[in-house]
Amino acid sequence: MNAKQANRAILFGNSESKLDVDKFVNFQVAKNKSFSNQFNMDMKSRITEAHLESFLRDTKNLSEYNTWNVMRAIRTLQTVWNVTEPTENAAMLLKRAMREQGRAPGSIRQYLKCMSYWAESQGNHINLSVIGLPKPESRVPRILDFETVAEIIIDPRLSLRDRTMMAVFAFSAGRLSEIQRLTVQSVNHKDKTILLKDTKTRKEKIAPIPAKYYPMLHEYLKARTEYLTSIGQSSDALFISAKTGHALSTDGIREIVYKIGRLYGLKSCDLHPHTMRFTAITRLMEVMGGNASMVKPISGHSSDKMLDYYNRVRIEAIKEKMEGFSY
Hints:
The chain is mainly alpha-helical and about 325 residues long. The chain has helices at about 5-10, 15-20, 20-40, 50-60, 65-80, 90-100, 105-120, 130, 145-155, 160-170, 175-180, 215-230, 250-265, 275-285, 290-300, 305-310, 315-320, and strands at about 185-190, 195, 205-210. It folds into two domains: about 30-130, no CATH class; about 140-320, hpI Integrase, Chain A. The protein has a three-stranded antiparallel β-sheet. Helix 9 (about 145-155) runs antiparallel to helix 10. The chain is globular, with a radius of gyration of 22 Å. Residues about 15-20 and about 45 have low confidence and may be disordered.
């Protein structure tokens, strides 16, 4: 095994060929390009895809990820729900049809809001208060067992990159897009912190790197540098692809998380990137004694009230403490 192969094995492990993350990412890129082409060709309204994308990004200030999601939803409205024009009447019919098919309130809300964006981009207006958005379901966020998170981070079956990535998810409470955009410059070795750019508020968040996980991150960064040198590549991205040396895409990171879930017998709904965010915030609330003001700078939430939601999640922890309760 030469130096290049040795560095690759240290950084990415030997299991990546089975997963073939890069093949998956290339497929996703091709799929997205195909989607973009079909969207542009089939759009029957007078608005072009370029104009819609510009409207969502520049006027509505949506992130790249959210822009793509809205455009994908509009495509679904056209091809699946046969919506040809974004009007209030069409919105009423859509709401009724989705309810009849048993679609979740959250899903109906999402599509109605996307239809509203579509109408607004054409200079029209859909009064959603008249349509009546279904009330969102009050659901407790799905979180991963803390012991399972700890096991994943030290699991020798996983590559150094994947274990480091899961550790960053676990202590930073970062969203998928925020983790994907991390660079080596995001890591402050002097203060032992990591800087994330909130994709919702566009503000910066700083997460302290726990002493337990800093050595792993440091080891990963060293192996990452050696690997890039061995393949003659350079990249600022924190988490890189084994094949190209370039930044992993959000799809690539998502598939790695799903792969880890399958390894632990978990479904994608039980372990996905946002599960890690919910889990991290819940753990932070416990560690900080429920002090939301100490968690907000890390999680990026704007109010204490929003974090109260996570105080109710770990009811099993309360039950455990109450086991021996008596007078």
